Amino acid sequence: MSDVVEKTLIALPGLFDSQTGAAKITNRLKQLIKSITELTSKHEEENLIKQELTAMKEQVSSPNTTMKQMREIMVRAMYCEMLGYDASFTYIHAIKLAQQGGVLEKRVGYLAVSLFLNEGHELLLLLVNTVLKDLQSTNLIEVCMALTVVAQEFPKDMIPAVLPLVEEKLSHPKEIIRRKAVLALYKFYLIAPNQVQHIHGKFRKALCDKDPGVMTSSLHIYLQLIRENPDSYKDLTGSFVTILKQVVGGKLPIDFNYHNVPAPWLQIQLLRILSLLGREDQSTSELMYEVLDESLRRAEMNHNITYAILYECVKAIYTIQPKAELLEKAARCIGNFVLSPKINLKYLGLKALTYVVQHDAKLALQHQMTIIECLDHSDFTIKRETLELLFRITNAQNVMVIVEKMLDFLRVCNDDHTVIHLVGKVAELAEKFAPDNSWFIQTMNDVFSIGGDLLQQDVPNNFLRMMAEGSESMEEDEQLRLYAVESYLSVLNGDCSHLPQRFLQVMSWVLGEYSHLQEDLDPREVIHLLMKLLDHRRVSLETRVWLLSALTKLCEGHTDLILDLSESLSSSQDTVLRQQAHELRLLSQDSQIHGWALPRGATWDSMEVDSSLSFLDGFVSEALAAGAAPYKPPHQRHEELCEERALSLEPYVFSLPVSLSSCSITDRQSPTLPSVTSELSDNSTDLLQKAGSSALIFEGVKRVWGKDGYLPQKETTGIAPPVEESSTAVLAPIQQRAAEMLEPQPEPLQQNQEKQQLASSLFVGLGAQSSMSLLGKSEAPPPRFRRKPRLHDSSSSSSTSEKSSESSHSSRSTADSFLYGNLLEEEPATSISSFNHAPKSATANHSQANGLGQNKDIVSMEADRQANTSQILGSDMVIVRPNKLQDRYPTRVVSDLSTLIPSDLKDLPHSDVISLTSDPSLSLSSCRVFKDEALLLVIFISNCTETTIKDVAVQLNCGELETASLRGNVMDYLEENSTSVCHYTLLMNDPQTQVSFTGTVSYQTQPGHTNTLMFSGTLSTVDFIRPLVVSTEEYGKMWLSFSHDVKQNLKLLTDAGDSLRSTLNVVKETLQLHIVDIIGSEGIVACRLLSGAPCLLHCRVNGEALAVWLRSSLPALPDCILYHCQKALAEH
Amino acid sequence: MIKAILIFNNHGKPRLIRFYQYFAEDMQQQIIRETFHLVSKRDDNVCNFLEGEVFHPIFSLIGGSDYKLIYRHYATLYFVFCVDSSESELGILDLIQVFVETLDKCFENVCELDLIFHMDKVHYILQEVVMGGMVLETNMNEIVAQVELQNRMEKSEGGLSAAPARAVSAVKNMNLPEIPRNINIGDINIKVPSLSPF
User: Fold this and answer.
1) ipTM over 0.85
2) Number of Cβ pairs closer than 8 Å across A and B?
3) Is the overall model pTM greater than 0.80, yes or no?
4) Which of A201, A550, A632, B95 is within CB 3.0–4.6 Å of A508 for a Cys-Cys bond?
5) Which among A26, A258, A343 is the nearest to B46, CB-wise?
C-alpha cells in the first residue's frame, strides 16, 4: 500500500498552486446544520431549506463562485437531498465539478453524482467522457474514483465505451486498482451480462491473482455466475477447495486476519460458492467434505466472526450431498447456536433448525427444551421464528398444543403483518390436522376473531368451501356443520359488536345454509338473530349483503318476520341491498320458487353451473349479427395490442363495447360465488400462478436434498438422541419419579416439569416419524378434511380447490383441465387414465368411456390387448398409451418417447426427448414442441414399477413465464409400466436469455403415502423465437417504428465462400430466424418472440466482423437474441 | 449484495444515506422512515436481524422478502444495512463493526457530530468499504490507509499542517455549546463496543 501513497505524494505538488488559503470549507454547511438543529417543527425546516436552496441556486449560477465554494455547495446539496429535498439544479454542477476540477473537486463531484443520479438518468451521459479521461489518468486516485463511480452507476448503453479501459485495469500493477476493476466488471455483468461475455477468461485470471484481495473481489462474480448456472463451473470446485484450504490453514498474510481469524469474509464467500456447487452433485460434494470438516474444526474459537463461518459451514453441509459424519457435526453446531445465550446466534440457530427439521425431525427433539424456552423469550423475533419452527414440525398428535401456542402469541401480538401471516398458518394447520370437529370450529372461531378484517380472503373462502363440499363421510360433514351452527348461535347470542366483519359473514353463511340441520332449533330464532345484526351500526354493507342472503335462505314460511325488513330496505340507497330485499320479499312469499331457487340441503356436486355461459349464446349471436367484434381472450388481445403499437400506421379496429353488466350472473347460493365466477373468467394462468406461489411455502428447501442416498446413510449412522421416543407415555413416569425424588425444591421443579410436559406434548410423534420424514414434508399424514374426489368438475369449486392445493396434496387441481377441456374438445387425462381399468370391469366403464369409443371397441381391446390402443380410442384421442412399446423394449430408451407425442403435435417441430428426473417408481422426460404462438412443454410421466400409481399430480412453476397446463397434469391412476403425457403451454412475455422452471410430481404408491418428485430444467429464448416472414418493404416500415436497438460486432465465418450467407445460415439453424433478403454485403433477418414482438436484424459485413444492428419493440429482446447469435457462432 | 446503508439517529434524523439500488427520492425517504419505525421499536437486547416480516411494507418497498435488515445501535446512532440473501448476516454485522471502528480511527473518538459535519468524509470512508453494493475491503488498516491518502491530499491543498484529528476536535469544541441538547444532536460519542456483546 505504501507505494501508492508515495506515488500520490509525488503527484501532489501540482495541487498546491491551484488552491490557496485555509478557509473553512464547511462554513456555510455548519451554519445550515446549526440552524436546522435549532428548529422545532418540520414546517420551519422546510422553509429554511427552501431559503438555503434558493441561495445555493444563486451561488452556483454566479460566475464568481470559486471551485472551493462549489465543493462546499455540493456538500450542502447532498445534505439537503439526504433530508429529502430536491436539489436537482445542482446535478449538472456536480458533473461539471467532476469534469473540470482538480482531484479534490473531482472527488466531491463524483460523490455527488453517485448520490444524486441513478443508472437511467440522462445527465449521466455527460459524465462518460470524464470517466474515460480519468480511467486513462496516471494519477491513481483519479483512476480509483472513476472506477468507483463506474461500479456505482453507469449508463448501460455506454458500457462498451469504457469496457476496454476497465478490462485493461485488470492487469494494472496496483492491487487496489485491479480489485476495483473486478468489481466494476461485476457490476457490468449484473446490468448487461451479454456485454462482458467475452471476458470470462479474465475473471478466471482474477481468481488466480497473486493478491488475495483481488481474488476475493472476483468471488463476487463467481458467486453470481455459479448461482445462475452451477453446471458450467464444476471444474473450478477444486480451485475453490484449495483456496479455502489455504485460507483456513492460515496461509494468507497476517494482514488478512480479523480478530485472529484468517480472512473470515473470504471464507464465508467460499463456503457459499461451494454449497452452490455441491448441491445435488455427489462427486463434487465429495471433493469438499474434507475442507468443510477442517473449517468446522478450525472455527471453534469463540469470536463472533467464527460463528458466521460456522453458520455458513452448517448451511453448506446441509445443502450439498449429505455425509453422515459431517451432518452429525453440523447438527451439534446447530445445537450450540440454539443453546447460545447470544441472541443473534439463537436466532440463526432456530432458522437453521427450521431448515433442517423438515428432513430430520430428531434434531428438534434434541433441543425441545430450548425451543420451549424460546417460546417465552422476550424477543419478539425469536418467538416468531420458534413458531415458524413449530409450524414445520406439526403433526396430528401435537397440533392442539402448537396451535394453542400460536394463538397465545397472536393474542398479544400487535404487528399486523405478523398476525396476517401467522393466522393463515393456524388455519392451515387446523384444516390439515384437526383432531375433532369441536376443536376445529373453535380454532377457526379464534382465527376469525383474531385475524379480524386483516385476514386474507382465502382463509374464510377455504373454510366455507370445506364446509360446503364436505369430506368423504356424510355423517362427519353433518356433525361438523351441526357443531358450527351450534357454536355460532352461542357466539351471536353473546356480545357480537366487536366481532370482525369476515367472521360475521362466515357465520351468516353457515347459519343460512345449515341451521336447518339442527332440528330442535326454531328458524325464527335464527332469523331474529340475523335481523338484529342487520340493524347493528358497525356492520358493513358487504356483511349486510351476506346477512340478507342468509335470511333469504331461511325466510320460507316466515313472511311475517321478513316483510318489515324488506320494506325498509327497499328504499335503501344501495342498489345491491335494494335488489336483495326485493328478492327476499318475493321468495319468502312463494315457497315454490324458493324451493326451486334455493333447494335446501342440496349437495354442491349436483349443482350445475353453466360454465360455458350458454344462456348468453343468443345475446352473443345477436351482438355479432349487429357487428360486434368476436370475443378474444385477454392474452390474445394483449398480443394484438402490442402488434398494433408496432404498426401504428394501421387504423384501430372498431369494436363494439359489450356490456356485461346487463347479464351479470347472480347466484344466490352464496355471496362468494360471484367473485369466484369472476375469477374464473380471468385468465386461468392467474390461478395457476397463485397456486404455484403458495405451494412454494412448502418446497424451496426441499430441493436441496438428493433424491436418494440420504436415507440409507442416515440409517447406518443412527444418531440416537436421548429423547428419541418422546411420547407422553414414556416421559410421564420419568417426570413423576423425578418429582418424587426432588420434593424439597418443588418450585423450580414444578416449572421444569411444566416445561417438560409441554415438550412432550409439542414434540410427540416426531420420533416415530423421523425416519420417514426424511423424504420430505409431503409424507405428513393425509389432511383430515379431505375433499371428495369428483368426476365432474363444477366450476365454482374447481377454481377454489386450485387455490388450496397447497394445503392438501391429494386435492386435485382441476381448474385447468376444466378450463381447457372445452376449448380443446379433448378428454382430460383423468378420465383417460381411469379408462385403463375398463377391460377389467367391463360393466363399470360405461360412464368413463363415453365419448371415447363404443363398448364394442372396448371388447375388442379386451380381446387383443396388444393392439395399439390409440386406434381403439378413436382419432380424437390424443394420448397414445405406451403399453405395447414397453413390452417390446423393456429397457426403455428416452428417445422412444418421442413417438408418444400426441398426434396433433407430431407434425410440429420438436426437440429431442430429454430425461428430466427419475426415482424408483417414476421417470420423467420432457420434450419441447415449437408451436407458432407458444412453446409446448410435453412431459412424459412413466411408471417404472409393476404396480399402479395413484393420484399423480404434476405442478410446474416458472416465475418468468406464463404457464398454463393444457391437460394431463392430474391423473387418478397410472398403470404399471405405462406412460402418460401432460402438456404445458409456456409464453414468454419478457424476453430473458435463459429461464429455468421447476416442478413437482406428487403421487401415491400406496394409499395415504404421498411421494414427491422434483424436476427442473432450463429454457432459452431460442425456444421462443419464431421466424417472421415479411417482405423487404414491410421490414423497412417496421424498422423505423421500433425504438429499442442494440449494435454489436459478431464473428464472421470466413471458411465458406459466401461468408455472409453462411454465417446467417448458421444463425438461422439455431435460432429459427427468417432471412428476408441478402443484398451484397448486407443482409436483413427477422424473427419474433412467439407470435408477439418482432425483432429485426440488420447485418453488414464489416471487414473481418459482422456488424449486427438489432431493433425491436421490446427493450430486452435484442440483447437476448444477440446473446444467442454470439453463442451460435462461437459454438459453430 | 448490499442494497442500502442507512445511518440515522435515535430520532430518525438521517445522518448518512447511501442507496446502491435506484429508488425514487420520495421512496427513499419512505424507506428511511419505515426502517426507523421498525428498528427503533426494538430493544437493545433483541437480535440484530430483521427478516421474514414478509408482509411488512418496508420489504415490499425494497422489493422482496429476499431482503433483510441488519442493524447495530451505537449510543445515538443506528447503522442499518439492507442486504439481499447473498450476504451473511453475521458477516455484515461485523462489517458494521469494522466500519464504525474505522470511523472511530479516522475521526478519533467518533460521535454523531462528526457524521453530520463531515458527511462527505464519511462517504469517502464508506466508499473504501463498500463499492457499488459489494464489499470491497474489510481490513481496517487498509481502509484507513486509503482514507489517509486522500486526507493528505486535502491537507496539502491548504498547506494545513495540523493533524486532521485536531481540526476535528476544534470543530467539535466550537459547535457543541451552541447546539441545544434537547434537539436531535447529542454530544455523546458513539461507543464502539468491544466485540463481545453480540
Assistant:
1) no
2) 208
3) no
4) A550
5) A343
